[in-house]
Amino acid sequence: MPRSSPVARTGDSSRPARSKSATKPVAQAVAEGFAPVCIAPSLPPVAPPADLPRILFIEQLASLIGKTETTIRTCATNAKYAHLIPRPFKLPNSRRLCWYERDVLEWIESTRPAEPPPPRRPRGRPTKAEQLSRARWAQNNTAQPSAKGGEQ
């Protein structure tokens, strides 16, 4: 059987005739100033609704709570350390750890100490200036609650 040529004969109606421009490689067409045209319809970007909770992944959680990604993975997979981070979940058909942003922010607020710890006292006897400043502070703090108690 004879091989058919890539260019259709004039009498052959089964194949349309190919033009010379269709046989050019794409790189050559781009070099000449013709770029390939994308025919797919472009859709406008879809913004998530405001009522949907924001999901954080391990990278964002690490920056929020100040722990490394490895530490977070260890705490998430080991029950012994589960109390050190907020409770994670996994999206369907995914192995990635996820957190809801509101849960993380609630966890941060709940684990924050109520007041900062007292400053560490140096060893030895306090200086006279430290003794006087403490006495003034104690006097001011004891005077204020009694004043408040008298107002009630």
TrEMBL record:
Residues 1-25, 109-152 are annotated as: Disordered. It comes from the Bacteria. This is AlpA family phage regulatory protein. It comes from Parachitinimonas caeni.
